[in-house]
Design goal:
The structure is a homodimer. With about 350 residues, chain A is of the alpha+beta class. Chain A has 2 domains: about 140 residues, PurM-like, N-terminal domain (60s Ribosomal Protein L30, Chain: A, 2-Layer Sandwich), CATH 3.30.1330; about 170 residues, PurM-like C-terminal domain (Phosphoribosyl-aminoimidazole Synthetase, Chain A, domain 2). Helix content of chain A is about 30%, strand content about 25%. Chain A has 9 helices and 13 strands. In chain A, strands 8-10-7-11-9-12-13 form a 7-stranded mixed β-sheet, sandwiched between helices. In chain A, a hairpin with a 6-residue loop joins strand 1 and strand 2. Chain A is globular. Chains A and B meet through strand 2, strand 3, strand 4, strand 5 and strand 6 of A and strand 2, strand 3, strand 4, strand 5 and strand 6 of B.
Chain lengths: ~350, ~350
């Protein structure tokens, strides 16, 4: 057990073979995958949706409490989430990784185990990528590709006055999971003999370490004939995402605090840290739920999907973006989302 | 002059706006670009070709002698080159960058100036990406997308006995340019007062700092009706690329040393370092020329393009991959290409 194989003992091509030999292809559109200068895709008359993300150790993740398998899963999930946010179906990913000699072949296997689990979960094909060294830490570049019927993609720009503001799942849990892991890390660094106290925190910790992309909601939209007018995924916190939709659509909105979905587990975790659960939902981020607007006529179509909450409505731009608190107060929504440059 | 603006003074979204405000769109297939969760592409019945690359400071480039503008240009060029190697036309790129606070806004502007110059040169559209921080150095992730008529893409697998082995342009120059820059860096580090001696070395230094992708050759193929049977771009050295084609096609080959295109500038530079020009072409890499095989019937169609050299022919697999030297000796071709993990 705990074998350690140096990556340098394989060489680049043997390493790529090793990491990609178990690839399973789920989509007929994946014509040519790993092993050539580029991959080839045929979307048969659909439009192609594409996004990419860079994830850097020490900036986007901390390997002290992030298992590599979870990191692999999350890498795919967060990129798939961006494809979902366009109302598209994810189909392929390309994955580039760079790592220092601190990482063994077994560590890379753990990471890829998570990647393949997510590919299986979301039925996406790993069709290409790059594998190289870094001077420091683990660096991940992920490109996700999806398909959508011609002109059925949904941007952040289409929200109109009178439409409903909706969000999937629940919010704030990932931020509290992260807060908890950061606390346990601090305690561990001060006294390595103290064991982490994560009892009863499975939900929040699970949300930060292994988020899921809402492919199921995109499928529900297609099945029920709902086309959101604007959509974005909640990666930086609800406030920040609402403001993106309002600014890009040229509208305002009213958000009801009492309608924001926050689970009991999240509330309890928030109170432990003397945090306001609503603030965690508004500013926390990393929820990877979908925030979208729909026409009022589509309201009844939501009834079959109890993981969607109507949290407010769209107004004129002049009215601004406001939250009505539980106490009845009205306040402008401000973005306090994550900024990598601060 | 030499102003320095801290990136942190802008924040992420203002930075993205700043870096992408001058984007020009060249392709009708670029339906939706920068500014949403993902970009949207419509290739109108063509197949999509996609590749990605990670470039890490200290591993793939040295900013001590690589101007950021050249680095931006090269990032696009090397990814476009992979698209060309599939016999496809490059159409879009996505660009992710991560950088430490050592990099000012002006430095990023230099980098993007090169990126946009390459987008203009190759008529590709920058349609998305990611902008974030790194703990150390400059990290680049580039995804390039291209289009090809259905099933007209060319892999490394199609070479057959009797076909001609061809290469574009000339080889070995980039390796000598790099050798020269590394020597000047070493001299500078030992004695910072010594000025770099790059006189007469414009060609080799130009090839390493600002390589060009052979989009022109792909256009020539289309115009003259040539479809290569196998193709790869020369990034790791001629030997390594020939072996990829032979192994993946299940064939052998004969390569004539005297036919390998090496310019007079490259020969002179090689002799200065007591290096064999042929060895530089075989093992140097970073040439970004195209290596391909064609049927003998297509030979006459090459006559209109004097930048293509026939350097050998394809044999049975059993005959192996061999080079016939200028002296008439026959030796197996061995890969000594670049390995990031050694």
């Amino acid at each position: 057990m705990n074998e350690r194989t140096e990556v340098s003992s394989l060489g680049e091509f043997a390493l790529i073979d090793h990491l990609t030999k178990n690839i399973e292809i789920h989509n007929v559109s994946s014509i040519l995958g790993v092993g050539d200068d580029a991959a080839v895709i045929d979307h048969f008359g659909k439009q192609t949706v594409v996004t990419n993300d860079l994830l850097i150790e020490g900036v986007h993740f901390d390997l002290m409490y992030t298992p590599l398998k979870h990191l692999g899963y999350k890498t795919v999930a967060v990129n798939v989430s961006d494809i979902c946010a366009m109302n598209a179906t994810p189909t392929q990913i390309l994955l580039g990784i760079a790592f220092s000699n601190r990482f063994s072949l077994e560590a890379l296997d753990d990471f890829y185990e998570g990647v393949y689990a997510a590919c299986e979960q979301y039925k996406v094909d790993l069709i290409g990528g790059d594998t190289t060294t870094s001077q420091k830490g683990f660096i991940i570049s992920c490109t996700a590709i999806g398909e959508v019927a011609p002109d059925k993609y949904v941007t952040r720009k289409g929200a109109q006055k009178g439409e409903l503001l909706c969000v999937t799942g629940d919010l704030g849990a990932a931020f509290l999971g992260l807060t908890l892991l950061e606390r346990e890390k601090k305690i561990f660094l001060e006294n390595p003999k103290v064991q982490p106290d994560l009892e009863g925190e499975t939900y929040t910790v699970g949300k930060i370490l292994k988020p899921e992309a809402r492919v199921d909601v995109i499928e529900y939209f297609e099945k029920t004939g709902i086309t959101p007018t604007a959509m974005i995924d909640v990666s930086d916190g609800l406030s920040s995402e609402i403001l993106h939709i309002c600014q890009q659509s040229g509208v305002g909105c009213v958000l009801y605090e009492e309608k924001i979905p926050v689970t009991e587990e999240t509330r309890k975790a928030a109170f432990k840290f003397n945090l306001d659960p609503t603030a965690c939902a508004l500013s926390g981020g990393e929820d990877y739920e979908l925030l979208f607007t729909i026409k009022q006529d589509d309201f009844e179509k939501l009834s079959g999907e109890n993981s969607i909450s109507v949290i407010g409505y769209i107004t004129d731009e002049d009215a601004g973006a406001n939250i009505i608190t539980k106490g009845g107060g009205k306040h402008p929504i401000t973005a306090q989302g994550w900024n990598a440059f601060k």
